[in-house]
UniProtKB/TrEMBL annotation:
<feature type="active site" description="Acyl-ester intermediate">
    <location>
        <position position="179"/>
    </location>
</feature>
<dbReference type="GO" id="GO:0030956">
    <property type="term" value="C:glutamyl-tRNA(Gln) amidotransferase complex"/>
</dbReference>
<comment type="function">
    <text>Allows the formation of correctly charged Gln-tRNA(Gln) through the transamidation of misacylated Glu-tRNA(Gln) in organisms which lack glutaminyl-tRNA synthetase. The reaction takes place in the presence of glutamine and ATP through an activated gamma-phospho-Glu-tRNA(Gln).</text>
</comment>
<feature type="active site" description="Charge relay system">
    <location>
        <position position="80"/>
    </location>
</feature>
<dbReference type="Pfam" id="PF01425">
    <property type="entry name" value="Amidase"/>
</dbReference>
<dbReference type="InterPro" id="IPR023631">
    <property type="entry name" value="Amidase_dom"/>
</dbReference>
<protein>
    <recommendedName>
        <fullName>Glutamyl-tRNA(Gln) amidotransferase subunit A</fullName>
        <ecNumber>6.3.5.7</ecNumber>
    </recommendedName>
</protein>
<dbReference type="InterPro" id="IPR020556">
    <property type="entry name" value="Amidase_CS"/>
</dbReference>
<dbReference type="GO" id="GO:0005524">
    <property type="term" value="F:ATP binding"/>
</dbReference>
<comment type="similarity">
    <text>Belongs to the amidase family. GatA subfamily.</text>
</comment>
<keyword id="KW-0436">Ligase</keyword>
<keyword id="KW-0547">Nucleotide-binding</keyword>
<feature type="active site" description="Charge relay system">
    <location>
        <position position="155"/>
    </location>
</feature>
<feature type="domain" description="Amidase">
    <location>
        <begin position="25"/>
        <end position="474"/>
    </location>
</feature>
<keyword id="KW-0648">Protein biosynthesis</keyword>
<dbReference type="GO" id="GO:0050567">
    <property type="term" value="F:glutaminyl-tRNA synthase (glutamine-hydrolyzing) activity"/>
</dbReference>
<keyword id="KW-0067">ATP-binding</keyword>
Amino acid sequence: MSDLTRKSAAELAAHLVAGDVSSVEVTQAHLDRISAVDTDVHAFLHVSADEALATARDIDARRAAGEDLHPLAGVPIAVKDVVVTKGLPTTAGSKILEGWIPPYDATLVEKIKAAGLPILGKTNMDEFAMGSSTEHSAYGNTRNPWDLDRIPGGSGGGSAAAVAAFEAPLAIGTDTGGSIRQPGAVTGTVGVKPTYGGVSRYGLIAMASSLDQAGPVTRTVLDSALLHELIGGHDPRDSTSLDEPVPTLVDAARQGALGDLTGVRVGVVKELSGEGYQAGVSARFEESLELLKAAGAEVVEVSCPHFVNALAAYYLIMPAEASSNLAKFDGMRFGLRVEPTEGPVTAERVMSATRGAGFGDEVKRRVILGTYALSAGYYDAYYGSAQKVRTLIQRDFAAAFEKADVLVSPTSPTTAFKFGEKLDDPLAMYLNDVATIPANLAGVPGISLPNGLSDDGLPVGFQILAPARADERLYRVGAALEAALENAWGGPLLDQAPELETR
């Protein structure tokens, strides 16, 4: 059989069911690919080869015995290192959790294990998911497989790079302000942020609890639908979990792939285009709109006037919640503990020494911002005002969805930039998420799929947003656009990526 690492998860699943290949063969092929290219890409912080192969052998035996298995059983997956995994290191990309082995699994990991997907390992990320380039990991940069001198996006650059480099057919990411979708855009992969509460947050190391959401990272819209259906659903251990069934996402993706969007209204968000967007990004976006029209969709312009304030509101709400969530990392209960070298060993001095040594600069910056925003005398002026803006953004979405079934925009204003270009300019870095942040503030679902190459030869992403609890719309419209694009390209965009030199 041709290179197993190049096949989609759906294709691998079909071959496994047909008996054309074993899970051990599929898993070993991906482990070999990791060995060959990850020295350069650095998508993984930990590779769990023995555990993955043990799962694969178990699935092969159960399938041979005629057991009824999950459709994705035997298809390997990578997991972002902010998701707790029993028995495997979980660091959230931070020195403060270096070497921590959790005693329990996140709910989504329980579901992955129960379905029989071998876990290849844990992927690199910006520390505590704070960043847009994976340059803030305490364990080194992940590199973009399209150009190893460029960033893979963030905070989930490791998951996106692993999928783009054919090291894993599926991966888990988390998205607080764009950390699944923006890496998807710059690596030519598909990334989905489900409706807030659609996938359990139990076992995610929290950054901002009202914004965080786990979701799929894949190479096709159908693969994302398959993984989303697996990890979604109600969890009584998560108080924000939606108590309702997972939508029929796979059916929506298969329907969309037929290419008929007759009757679907697509709203172009006026405020998410124009100045600040790279010319090639804008050009590919306009071309994609024409493909949607050709599929029968009605394209209209909608205005969401308060989106221009989303970035400012986000960078008050998110740091405020992060400063609260990260207070648990105090050197007292788990993780790193640093005692002062001189003077008395008090709780306060241990906390100060531990957090000073264990947190990186970006985490410290956001904790300080958040603590300031929540402090007496500033709470109403900053955090309270930001929450009011959040309400206005939610109202903008509600009004826009009265005029359109889905909203669309470029995912990221630019293609992948070179390492170090924006590291010393936090505002320039934050602007990478200007188009993705509104969805997190409102809790609505979003998908990014690759829609071509910019003039610099690097991937561009197309973002689709749907109303809360209407995730199936993402998959129908996304699959239709994907089919039209691949017809125009003659195959998947990643086929045009330069081949990584293996060693």
